[in-house]
Design goal:
Layout: H1 6-17, H2 26-37, H3 43-48, E1 65-71, E2 74-80, H4 84-95, H5 110-121, H6 127-143, E3 162-166, E4 176-177, E5 182-183, H7 184-198, E6 202-206, H8 213-219, E7 224-228, E8 240-245, H9 249-266, E9 270-276, H10 283-288, E10 293-297, H11 304-312, H12 314-331
Parallel strand pairs: 3-6, 3-7, 7-10, 8-9
Antiparallel strand pairs: 1-2, 4-5, 8-10
Length: 332
């Protein structure tokens, strides 16, 4: 993050770990702040922790104080924040004001969100396009925030074993994208290899038969299990979800960790974590594995746009999984 001020780097670190109501909006809002603050170099950001160019409004009382600032379009009162955390909370308070009424009906994706609030936030007709162009940079920034033990060791060491299951198999490859003729198995086989490069204590598992799979995994005695899949439905549905066994409290906990990381990276609609019984799709694996187990469905492979986004930065997606796996190892 060499092109950013130390204050902006701190903002990114805080935002990456902050729980927000719509985590799929994390990249687009960070893209806004990259633009508004000049990567943290604006006077408002440096002096007042105001990374979003937020002007003073009475509703901001209690979140910020009022300060006079001479901007390029003239002098006006702006918000002064005490620290990055205050700005992060203040931004969402600012957006909750009446001029933005209806924004929560436009949160399926970052693109939908900025299309709605952008013209209100800034009347410049090129503003929305500028923000959208910065989303890839924002995603990379969020991914660059690594756990301490990932630094300089050639891969994260967890001292706990994660069984990384490649969903389906070559002869039964799962859902297929019609345009690219790319299957779940092909996509996740490549992805698993990248994840394994980033996390030391990972063991890939391939399916022989579906009924033998839990026994094959249990024989490894893993501490937890991540099964790599992709969703599919009607070629237009989009979103990220993670499945877990309905009676597993640890399964639920690690599902939440993985969901947060995947949504933050991909920016797709957050479909949430979903409990499954043994009768549900994926329930057999979840029930009969002895360690906490989750099934990842990060995107819909039959949706061309979803697949394009996932393939755009496959290494970044692997990094999101790796960070999640490291965090999950602390939770089991």
């Amino acid at each position: 993050m060499s092109n950013y001020t130390d204050r902006f780097k701190e903002l990114v670190r805080k935002y990456a770990d902050m729980d927000i109501k719509y985590p799929q909006l994390r990249p687009v809002t960070l893209a806004q702040w990259i633009l508004e603050s000049g990567r943290g170099n604006s006077e408002l950001a440096i002096r007042h922790f105001n990374f979003g160019g937020l002007k003073w409004r009475k509703e901001m009382q209690g979140h910020a104080t009022k300060t006079w600032y001479e901007a390029s379009d003239g002098g006006e009162n702006y918000c002064k924040f005490q620290n990055p955390e205050a700005f992060l909370k203040g931004y969402w308070k600012f957006i909750s004001r009446p001029p933005y009424t209806g924004w929560e009906d436009n949160v399926e994706s970052g693109e939908e969100y900025i299309d709605f609030i952008g013209p209100i936030y800034c009347p410049n007709p090129s503003y929305v396009e500028k923000v959208l162009n910065l989303i890839p940079e924002a995603r990379q920034l969020l991914q660059s925030v690594k756990p301490e033990s990932e630094e300089d060791n050639g891969g994260m060491e967890m001292k706990k074993l994660c069984a990384l299951v490649i969903g389906h198999k070559r002869t039964s490859p799962g859902a297929v994208n019609a345009r690219d003729n790319l299957s779940e198995f092909q996509f996740n086989d490549r992805l698993a290899a990248l994840i394994e490069e980033k996390v030391v204590d990972v063991q890939r598992v391939y399916r022989r038969t579906y009924h033998e799979l839990p026994g094959d995994i249990n024989a490894l005695e893993p501490d937890f299990i991540v099964s790599l899949h992709c969703n599919a439905f009607n070629q237009s549905t989009s979103g990220t979800e993670v499945l877990y066994h309905h009676r597993s409290s640890k399964g639920k906990k690690i599902a939440q960790i993985l969901q947060k990381r995947l949504v933050a990276f991909l920016g797709f609609p957050d479909r949430g974590i979903k409990p499954r019984t043994s009768e549900d799709r994926g329930g057999y694996l979840l029930k009969y594995t002895e360690a906490p187990c989750v099934i990842a469905e990060p995107f819909f492979i039959d949706n061309d746009d979803d697949l394009d986004r996932a393939q755009q930065d496959l290494d970044g997606l692997a990094h999101a999984y790796a960070n999640a796996i490291y965090e999950m190892s602390k939770a089991v």
